[in-house]
């Protein structure tokens, strides 16, 4: 398993296995990788069912973390497929999943209560009450809305100190 969480974590995107290796080589503590069919950045995704497991193994060899992004807002026709994929991927033991859809988070945690769920920035958490809600349903980390100021982030942390918070610090990649 990866090293324990530090106070700060440098998390970088990994659009494909090669970019994943570069991110780790240049200092990333962790990467996020999109799951095909369930990532909003599907066109920019070089991962597939075969290489996600390899990516997780590679991260483990380096003592690094990897989070799988499944941040679509699903229509009914994709819910069952999403949940099946989620369970299969949870068996590979990534460090967590980045999900947006409240219904999918709810179902995923019912199926796999041990899963680590991070709320995607796509869910647009902009205040402490939202962060408190996500904490109460079992989310472990909230990726805050990109529009928040440092002052607003500090207030959220002050009011919900037990929640891990993530914020973009450069660009919107």
Kindly describe this structure.
Helices cover 39% and strands 15% of the residues. α6 links the parallel β6 (141-143) and β7. It contains six helices and seven strands, in the order βαβαβαβαβαβαβ. It has helices at residues 17-25, 49-62, 76-90, 102-111, 128-137, 150-159, and strands at 11-13, 30-34, 65-69, 96-99, 117-119, 141-143, 164-166. The chain is of the alpha/beta class.
- Spatial arrangement of strands, main beta sheet: 1-2-3-4-5-6-7
> Which term fits the overall shape?
globular
The largest sheet, given as strand count, sense and whether it forms a barrel, is: 7 strands, parallel
Number of helices: 6
What is the averaged pLDDT score?
92
Order of helices and strands: EHEHEHEHEHEHE
How far from one another are the termini?
A: 27 Å
Structural class: alpha/beta
Question: How many β-strand runs?
Answer: 7
Low-confidence stretches: none
Into which percent range does the helicity of residues fall?
Answer: 25-40%
Rg from Cα: 15 Å
Beta content = 15-25%
In a few lines, what is going on in this structure?
By secondary structure, this protein is α/β, with parallel strands linked by helices. The chain has helices at residues 17-25, 49-62, 76-90, 102-111, 128-137, 150-159; strands at residues 11-13, 30-34, 65-69, 96-99, 117-119, 141-143, 164-166. Helices cover 39% and strands 15% of the residues.
Sequence-ordered SSE layout with sheet pairings:
Layout: E1 11-13, H1 17-25, E2 30-34, H2 49-62, E3 65-69, H3 76-90, E4 96-99, H4 102-111, E5 117-119, H5 128-137, E6 141-143, H6 150-159, E7 164-166
Parallel strand pairs: 1-2, 2-3, 3-4, 4-5, 5-6, 6-7
Helix pairs in contact: 3-4
């Amino acid at each position: 398993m990866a090293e324990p969480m530090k106070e700060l974590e440098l998390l970088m995107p990994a659009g494909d296995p090669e970019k994943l290796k570069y991110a780790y080589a240049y200092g990333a503590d962790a990467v996020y990788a999109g799951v095909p069919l369930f990532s909003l950045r599907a066109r920019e995704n070089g991962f597939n069912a075969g290489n996600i497991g390899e990516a997780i193994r590679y991260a483990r060899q380096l003592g690094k973390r990897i989070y799988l992004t499944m941040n679509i807002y699903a229509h009914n026709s994709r819910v069952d497929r999403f949940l099946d994929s989620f369970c299969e991927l949870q068996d590979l033991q990534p460090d967590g999943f980045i999900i947006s859809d409240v219904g999918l988070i709810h179902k995923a945690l019912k199926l796999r209560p041990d899963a680590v769920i991070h709320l995607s920035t796509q869910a647009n958490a902009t205040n402490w009450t939202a962060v408190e809600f996500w904490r109460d349903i079992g989310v472990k980390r909230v990726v805050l809305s990109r529009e928040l100021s440092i002052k607003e982030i500090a207030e959220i942390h002050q009011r919900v100190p037990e929640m891990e918070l993530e914020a973009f610090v450069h660009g919107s990649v």
